[in-house]
Write a structure and sequence with these properties.
The complex is a heterodimer. Chain A is α/β, with parallel strands linked by helices. Chain A is built from nine helices and ten strands. In chain A, strand 4 and strand 5 form a beta hairpin. By secondary structure, chain B is of the alpha/beta class. In chain B, strand 1 (47-53), helix 3 (58-69) and strand 2 (73-79) form a beta-alpha-beta unit.
Chain lengths: 246, 372
């Protein structure tokens, strides 16, 4: 087993009487593509936000890239990338300006920004759109750009919250190619999704139901354990037990 | 290189790509500074007066002529029955009734004194009381000239008289525009500054971009400063546009130095923008931020000393105006523009604004949480 990228022990988040995340524990190795599944309202986003330092845990322990989520959340932020459910690049800035802004915040030198921006635009075939306002790009392109911006500063771990929501199958396929490329570079990928075909692309998958992790294994092991032909069936068997809905 | 540079670059680009903001900066000040001082004026003109003349002597006619000759009064009815005049008062056609009694002239000559009756429509209190005061003035003058003309000087001089002659310092012609324009300029800078800053952070919340910012190692201090500086620059630009309008349209050039005004404005804007950012960081959405800003601005403006005099407020309200940044700037603006005060003269106001800005902006930084 490689180095540990994320270590979570009995992590919980409570809003009043509502246990959004209920004592979850897991470990993600460096370089792994870790699928984080669950129905709407199962607590995936809340769990992810705690790991990114956006939300304070109620109890439990967690370290991300070796830093404690309670005390070293600003150090965590230097080592991670994050792409939220909601598209979050600036629509009134151009492609190039968005890249420059985020790269600048992460403290990348101006020279490096110029070099890396060029190679990124080439990789995404967005050279012609470099000076187009991001708001005018089609959704699929925006998502790919958002992902590339999230890993522009070469983080150890990238958190993706439903990165392919609302995107066509071809673009989804291209998106996953980008994820594989990132994983090959050694970036740990922590991804939530509702698409079960995407779950198959992950090294390991956890399935959350009502704030708890009900299953965690490789996709092939999960299928054999649950006697299912596809991840779809595994998911439905587990998610059906859910008592709470959105 | 500091991340602040990148934040500023981004903010400026966003601001200048927003056509609404550009209009706010350049067109709004011009329109407001031209329109408001012309219309919003303390001077009361066009007071409608109904005169009941029961005397009809030449003296009474002379008095009525003097009243109508002033620019303040409009004669709406001239009758010899009080009831008709009362009707016009009741139907709001008249603000004042002046009744000249029968034998007005005769008594004045024979008994050396007479009475005039004045009825005031106090529904519009300001108009009524000012009208009565103006009218009193005219009657006094009339009285004086009558005495000088008709009475024997020797006999009259036994009664000592106090004559008050006043001269208006700093605004010798009592020109209301010189009084209003600098004040309106303060309001403009304040309204533009607070509105723009208050909808800014909350806009990022609505767009979801704030989450992306919060997950970066950006420092809270840098983030707030990145929001503050662009609006600070815009505030100073708005003020400059205002000074140009004041000079071109009204010929107002501050007696004091522009440097003093900009120096104060630079500190003042930190207070205003800090309040805006504070509202923004507590609000959930832009509507909420705008409503709260509107409410606060309304109180600040109405109690700022431009439309109401702070000196005539009750004690508790005077105390409250100490928390109102607008009242400081209006005071400073008038001192520098009309009196030519220097930085030394406005030191108390400068210190107050410095303290205010430190408290507000530390609060703004603390109220912005990267983690919920």
């Amino acid at each position: 087993m490689n180095k540990t990228a994320i270590l979570v022990e009995n992590l919980s988040k409570q809003f009043g009487h509502f246990k959004a995340v209920d004592q979850i524990s897991f470990e993600v190795a460096q370089g792994e593509i870790f699928g984080f599944l669950g129905a709407n309202g199962a607590g995936k986003t809340t769990a992810m936000k705690m790991l990114c330092g956006l939300s304070m845990p109620t109890s439990g322990k967690a370290t991300v890239a070796g830093f404690d989520v309670y005390t070293e959340n600003e150090s965590i932020k230097k080592s991670i990338g994050y792409m939220s459910q909601k598209f979050s690049l600036y629509e009134d800035l151009t492609v190039k300006e968005n890249i420059k802004f985020y790269a600048g915040i992460y403290g990348i030198s101006p020279k490096q920004i110029i070099q890396k921006t060029e190679s990124l635009l080439r990789q995404l075939s967005l050279e012609k759109e470099a000076n187009v306002l991001v708001g005018q790009l089609p959704l699929g392109w925006k998502q790919k750009l958002a992902f590339s911006v999230a890993i522009f500063h070469d983080p150890q771990i990238v958190f993706l919250d439903e990165p392919t929501g609302g995107v066509d199958p071809i673009t989804r396929r291209e998106f996953w190619n980008l994820i594989y490329e990132a994983a090959e570079k050694g970036i740990t990928v922590f991804v939530t999704t509702h698409y079960m075909d995407e779950a198959e692309y992950c090294n390991r998958v956890s399935i959350m139901v009502d704030g708890k992790i009900e299953a965690l294994d490789t996709p092939s092991n999960l299928k054999s354990n649950f006697n299912a032909a596809s991840m779809d069936e595994v998911f439905i068997q587990l998610a059906r037990k859910a008592k709470r809905s959105e | 290189m500091s991340p602040l540079r990148y934040i500023l670059e981004k903010e400026f680009k966003q601001i200048f790509r927003n056509p609404a903001i550009l209009k706010t900066i350049f067109i709004l000040p011009v329109i407001q500074l031209i329109m408001l001082p012309m219309a919003a004026d303390y001077e009361i003109k066009n007071i409608n007066i109904a005169v009941v003349n029961n005397d009809h002597g030449s003296l009474s006619i002379e008095l009525v002529q003097q009243i109508t000759a002033s620019n303040y009064f409009k004669l709406v009815s001239y009758t010899n029955g009080f009831n008709t005049a009362m009707e016009s008062l009741e139907s709001d056609k008249a603000d004042l009734i002046l009744e000249i009694p029968k034998d007005f002239e005769k008594r004045l000559f024979k008994e050396k004194e007479t009475n005039l009756f004045l009825a005031v429509n106090a529904i519009n209190g300001v108009k009524g009381s000012l009208g009565a005061a103006y009218l009193n003035n005219i009657i006094q003058t009339f009285n004086q000239s009558f005495r000088n003309k008709e009475l024997v000087p020797g006999r009259f001089s036994e009664i000592p008289q106090i004559q008050i002659s006043s001269s208006n310092w700093y605004n010798p012609k009592m020109n209301y525009r010189i009084f209003m324009v600098p004040g309106i300029l303060v309001l403009l800078v304040t309204i533009v500054g607070m509105n723009l800053s208050s909808i800014n952070i909350v806009r990022e919340k609505e767009m979801g971009t704030i989450e992306q910012i919060n997950v970066t190692p950006i420092q809270k201090f840098h983030f707030i400063l990145g929001k503050l500086i662009p609006f600070w620059v815009i505030g100073l630009i708005v003020m400059s546009v205002g000074f140009i309008v004041a000079w071109v349209v009204y010929g107002i050039i501050p007696l004091g130095s522009y440097f003093t005004l900009y120096f104060f404005a630079a500190i003042y804007l930190l207070v205003i923008l800090g309040i805006g950012l504070l509202i923004s960081s507590y609000s959930e959405n832009q509507q909420q931020a705008m409503l709260v800003t509107f409410f606060i601005l309304m109180i600040f403006v109405l109690m700022g000393g431009l439309y109401t005099s702070i000196d005539s407020m009750p004690e508790w309200a005077k105390w409250f105006t100490k928390l109102n940044p607008i009242s400081y700037f209006i005071e400073v603006m008038r001192m520098v523009v009309l009196k030519g005060s220097s930085i030394k003269d406005i030191l108390p106001q400068i210190l107050a604004m410095l303290g205010y800005s430190v408290v507000i902006n530390i609060w703004a930084v603390l109220s912005y949480h990267k983690r919920s």
